[in-house]
Amino acid sequence: MKKVNLVFQLNGREVAVKVPPETLLVDLLREVLGLKGTKIGCREGECGACTVLLDGDPVNSCILPALKVGGRSVVTIEGLSGADGSLDPLQQAFIDQGAVQCGFCTPGMILNAKALLDKSPRPAEAEIRKAISGVLCRCTGYHKIVVAIQTAAEVRK
Amino acid sequence: MEPAFKELHWSRDIVVKEYLLPGSLPEALDMLDHFKGKARVIAGGTDVIPELRRRDLQVKALVDVSRLPGLNAIEKDGRHIILGGLVTHGQVASSPLIREKAGLLADGAAAVGSPQIRNIATVAGNLVSGRPAADTSIPLLALEASVTIASKKGERVVPLTEFFVSVGETVLDSSREVLTQIRFQGLQPDQGGCTLRLSKRRALTLPILVVAAVVTVDSTARVFKKAAIALGPVAPTPFRARESEAGLKGAPLSREAIRKAAGLAVQECLPRDSLLRGSCSYRQEMIPVFIRRSVQKALEQAGFSID
User: Fold this and answer.
1) Cα angle value B55/B181/A73 (rounded, 5°)
2) Which pTM was predicted?
3) C-alpha distance from A133 to closest chain B C-alpha (Å)
4) CB A60 to CB B46 under 8 A?
């Protein structure tokens, strides 16, 4: 199989790889680049476990051809913590508020929340619920996730 | 891997020999031409990639049009609004121009999939996929939109009423053609519009029923000059409820007239029984209810009271 060059920004650093043309971004991230934080749930763009930020906007990486991200910026859950391992306020709030149970939806939840807070620092509850409406959680009932995002918004002020 | 496990759709990879990213429309059309029907246009990919994975679609090459210049803007042209072929649902849902002049389309776009889908899925793609439940096809039909289709032979403009052929099929051949533009007139002062959606949840769900209405009112005589009512998914394609529209033309702005006209649409619809999204008979009951409500809301939106 003929491979194609792909250069893009991943978590703030330039990455250059050769990929088969049919590669989907989630497989590039997990299997080639070893970033297992991005999860695979449904593989058809329904559950949101595979959410990453593309130029700041959340997208489902399981249905995104990897070659689409050439020259663009991708942020995964690994890109949120500082170089010293310090957590993003959202990550800390999810821990503090008990918003993580099995954890499978957590990266998608946090990245959707980050995109929201970057655009709207003091969101109303309805805005928060809308922002995470594309990520399915089967454990928490969503309430603690909403509380965690509200807490992070307070901390980020 | 166990053979049974391989059968699960999510364990399958997609198969494509080439993934091409043309930098201009002529280049894209040349690439499609080169593959003689064995390539397929991809924009956001939120329909195409799952179809490839399910093997509902098999192609040699994908021609990704997402980098074509000049196709990602929402523009005003006099009374008309033009959506470039790459405009996403998210752009439409949040555009102040669309919210003001075609709020029914913004509402339709906001109901599609999830935020992640709306960020990348294009409205043109929603039309081209030809699904009877497409949330933007229905308000665009009520807005009497037309689309521009580019191919090696040139451009053609097709009214949306002549665009949909059957489930998943339109007059556009996405192995050779690209939808470059969607055009419609924004709502005028004597017009009101509304899209209503019936679904089991408020997110991540296909609709049981969508009704979009655009009404034009003769404010002196207090009658309907015209009504454009579009429905889905209650037939193989989204369509205009011509019987109800005819029933409203010239009718007074009264509850009774709206109720009567709304009932006429049922005979034009043949919804499928769906275990997930309601039985045929349930949808048939709901059709007049939603037409009535959407026409009333369209009137209210235009600032007219109902007698």
Assistant:
1) 65
2) 0.95
3) 6
4) yes
